[in-house]
Specification:
alpha/beta; TIM Barrel; FAD/NAD(P)-binding domain; 3 domains; 5-stranded parallel β-sheet; 25 strands; 16% strand
Length: 617
C-alpha cells in the first residue's frame, strides 16, 4: 500500500505540454459565483484561490458561456463571449497560478438544455432537432445548417480569449446533454442532413469544433474534451457509440474527461449511490484511446483504489467535484495522511437541487465557508479576548460553534445529553441511504473536537446547569417532538426496533422517509403515511426521488393525504419545534440560542448558524 505522500495520485502528470503537480483535477462545478452579467468577481476568485491552495493539480472552471444570448445556462454563469471579459478571467487565472495550480476554461453552450425565459430576447433555445424538450421544459428550435459555421466560431473565439487570458488549457463541454452532446446523441439529433443519422454524421459537429479550436490555439495549448460516454435511457447515446466517438477524438485532443448521463438522467451524473459509479466509464475509455483520461464520481471515498487504478494505468487523473465544495483542502489533508480530517461530501445534493437548480448561488450543507472564503478566513483569526465558552448540544451547530471558537483561542466546553456527539445526525445515519456518509461526518466532528482540545462532556442534562460560570453560552439544543408516543428521531438515534412486525410511520418530513426505510431494513412490514399530498417536504427533489426509489425497493407502502391510524405501532415524524432548554437564561447577548433552535431548518441552517455565531464571539 502506498503512503499518502508517495502514491501515484501525488506524482506529477502531463496533459499535452502541460505538467501538473499531481493527478487531482477539480471538476467543473456550477457555483453561480459570477456576477449577474457573467463577470468574474471577488467571490469567484476567492473560491478558486482556496481550492488551488488546497492542493489540486488542475482546476477546470465551471461552464463558461460562449453564447450569452441563447446558450447560457440558467443562473449566473461565467461568460467568454466578448473580449471585455478577458480582464476578469485573467485575474482569476493569476490567483490560481499564485497558489501553484493550473487552470482550464470550460467552453459551454446549453443547446436545448435551456429555457426560453432565460434567453435575452425570449426566443426558443437551439438544438439539432426541434421540439425535443429537456429537463428544463422549453421546446427548442432546430439549428439551420447555415448557422453551424457561426456556432463553431463561437467555440473558436472563446478558446482564443481563454488563451489570451492566460488559461493553461481549454476544455470543450460535450457532456451532460449540452449542445456538443446533443449532436452526438440519437435521441436529440434526428437530422437527415450531413449532421445527423449515422454515428459519423452525428459526431461531425463536435469533431469540426475540436479541429477548429485546435487550429486556433495551436499544438501546445492542451485541449480537453468532456463527454458523457453513455446516456442511460431509451434512445440515448449507447456506450458502444460513445467509445467509438472517443476513438474519433483521440487524434485531436490531449485528454478525455469522462462522465455519463444528462439532466434528464441527473441521478446518473450527480450520483447519490455508492462511490465509484462513474469511474468504470473512464476505465473503459482508457482501453480505447492513447491520450490521458480523467475519471470522476465521488472518488474521495476511494483514494486507495484510485492510487492503484492510476498506478496500473487504468486511468490517469481523478476529478473531484462536489467534494471540493465540501472541503477545499481535501488533497492537502489526504497527502499529509490526515484523511480523517476531510469533510467528506455526503451526496445529499442540496448543493445542486436546492440551490443550483433554483438559480441561487451554490451552498454546501456541511461547509459554511463555501462562497464566503474571505469572510471565513477573517472569522478564523485569533480572538483579541479569550473567553470561557459553553456550547450546549453537540449536533452539527454545536460542533461547528465549538470548533471555530476553540480555533480562535477561546476555552471551550461542549456538553451533550446523549452518549455520542452528532445530535440528529445520529438519526440520519441509521438507514442505509446515507449511513456511511453521515457516520463519517460524526466521526469527523469527534476527530476535530479532540484535535482542537474542546472539552467534551457526554451524558449531561443541560437543564441542571448553572450557566453563570461562562462568559458566553451557546444553546445548540435543536428541536423536539410535539407529540406523545414513539418519535422517529429518537427511534433512529437509539436504534430502537419496535416489537410488532407491522409498523406505520406518520409524517411528511425527510425523517419520516428515513424512519420507514430503516424499519423496512429491519424486516418490518412498513407503511409511510403523509398528511400532505407529498412526502419529504423539507428535502430537495433529487434526494426525495432517491429515497422514494429506495422505499419502493424495500416494498414500503407510501400513501399521501392520509390520516394517522388509531391502532397498531405508530412512529410519528411530523415537524418539530424549537427546544426550550434553559430558555429563561437566554438574553441574546451572553446566552444565545443558535442552530435550528434559533432559525429552524435542517443541516444547512445548523452549520451556518453555529459557525457564524462563533465568529462573533
Amino acid at each position: 500500500m502506498h503512503t499518502a505522500q508517495d502514491g501515484p495520485l501525488f506524482r506529477p502528470g502531463r496533459i499535452g505540454q502541460m505538467t501538473l503537480r499531481n493527478r487531482f483535477v477539480q471538476a467543473p462545478i456550477f457555483t453561480q459565483f459570477a456576477s449577474t452579467f457573467g463577470e468574474v468577481d471577488e467571490r469567484l476568485i476567492e473560491y478558486h484561490r482556496a481550492r488551488a491552495r488546497g492542493g489540486v493539480g488542475l482546476i477546470i472552471i465551471e461552464n463558461t458561456s460562449i453564447d450569452w444570448e441563447v446558450g447560457r445556462t440558467v443562473g449566473h454563469p461565467i461568460r467568454i463571449d466578448h473580449d471585455r471579459f478577458r480582464a476578469g478571467l485573467a485575474d482569476l487565472v493569476e490567483a490560481v497560478h499564485n497558489e501553484g495550480s493550473k487552470i482550464a476554461v470550460q467552453l459551454h453552450h446549453t443547446g436545448r438544455q435551456n429555457s426560453q425565459g432565460n434567453t435575452e430576447r425570449n426566443e426558443p433555445p437551439l438544438a439539432p432537432t426541434a421540439g425535443i424538450t429537456s429537463a428544463f421544459g422549453t421546446p427548442p428550435r432546430a439549428i439551420d445548417e447555415r448557422e453551424i459555421p457561426g456556432l463553431i466560431d463561437r467555440y473558436v473565439q472563446g478558446a482564443r480569449r481563454a488563451v489570451a487570458a492566460g488559461f493553461d488549457a481549454v476544455e470543450l463541454h460535450g457532456a451532460h446533454g449540452y449542445l456538443l452532446g446533443q449532436f452526438l446523441s440519437p435521441f436529440t439529433n434526428r437530422r437527415i442532413d450531413d449532421w445527423g443519422g449515422s454515428l459519423e454524421n452525428r459526431a461531425r459537429f463536435a469533431l469540426e469544433v475540436v479541429k477548429a479550436v485546435r487550429a486556433e490555439i495551436g499544438p501546445d495549448v492542451p485541449l480537453i474534451y468532456r463527454l458523457s460516454v453513455e446516456e442511460p435511457y431509451e434512445g440515448g447515446l449507447s456506450l458502444d457509440d460513445g467509445l467509438d466517438f472517443c476513438e474519433m477524438l483521440d487524434p485531436f485532443v490531449d485528454a478525455l474527461d469522462v462522465s455519463a448521463g444528462n439532466y434528464d438522467t441527473a441521478a446518473t451524473l450527480l450520483p447519490m449511490v455508492s462511490p465509484g459509479s462513474l469511474v468504470g466509464y473512464a476505465k473503459a475509455v482508457k482501453k480505447r484511446v492513447s491520450v490521458p483520461v480523467i475519471g470522476v464520481g465521488r472518488l474521495t471515498w476511494l483514494i486507495e483504489d484510485m492510487h492503484k487504478a492510476v498506478g496500473d494505468g487504468e486511468l490517469d487523473f481523478v476529478a473531484l467535484g462536489r467534494s471540493q465544495l465540501a472541503d477545499p483542502d481535501t488533497v492537502t489533508k489526504t497527502r499529509r495522511g490526515e484523511a480523517s480530517r476531510v469533510r467528506r461530501c455526503i451526496a445529499v445534493n442540496e448543493c445542486i437541487s436546492r440551490w443550483m437548480f433554483n438559480g441561487k448561488r451554490t451552498q454546501c450543507v456541511i461547509n459554511p465557508a463555501l462562497g464566503q472564503e474571505r469572510r471565513a478566513a477573517e472569522a478564523r483569526r485569533p480572538t483579541a479576548m479569550r473567553r470561557r465558552v459553553l456550547v450546549v448540544g453537540a449536533g452539527p451547530s454545536g460542533c461547528e460553534a465549538a470548533l471555530l471558537a476553540a480555533s480562535r483561542g477561546h476555552d471551550v466546553e461542549l456538553i451533550e445529553q446523549a452518549h455520542r456527539v452528532g445530535g440528529q445526525l445520529r438519526a440520519w445515519a441509521a438507514a442505509s441511504a446515507f449511513h456511511a456518509e453521515i457516520d463519517n461526518l460524526i466521526s469527523f466532528y469527534e476527530t476535530e473536537l479532540e484535535r482542537s482540545k474542546v472539552t467534551v462532556r457526554l451524558g449531561i442534562d443541560a437543564a441542571t446547569l448553572d450557566v453563570d460560570a461562562w462568559d458566553s453560552v451557546l444553546l445548540a439544543t435543536g428541536t423536539v417532538a410535539t407529540h406523545a408516543g414513539l418519535d422517529a428521531v429518537s427511534m433512529l438515534a437509539d436504534r430502537h426496533v419496535p416489537q410488532d412486525d407491522e409498523v406505520t410511520v406518520f409524517g411528511e418530513t425527510e425523517i419520516a422517509m428515513f424512519a420507514a426505510l430503516w424499519l423496512a431494513e429491519q424486516g418490518k412490514r412498513t407503511t409511510l403515511l403523509s398528511p400532505l399530498d407529498v412526502v419529504g417536504i423539507d428535502t430537495n427533489d433529487m434526494e426525495r426521488d432517491h429515497l422514494l426509489n429506495l422505499l419502493s425497493k424495500h416494498e414500503v407502502t407510501v400513501r399521501v393525504g392520509a390520516s394517522a391510524p388509531n391502532a397498531g405501532t405508530l412512529v410519528r415524524a411530523t415537524p418539530r419545534v424549537a427546544s426550550s432548554v434553559l430558555a429563561d437564561a437566554v438574553d441574546d447577548d451572553r446566552v444565545q440560542a443558535i442552530g435550528t433552535r434559533f432559525r429552524g431548518g435542517r443541516l444547512y441552517e445548523a452549520t451556518q448558524s453555529g459557525f457564524w455565531t462563533a465568529a462573533r464571539l
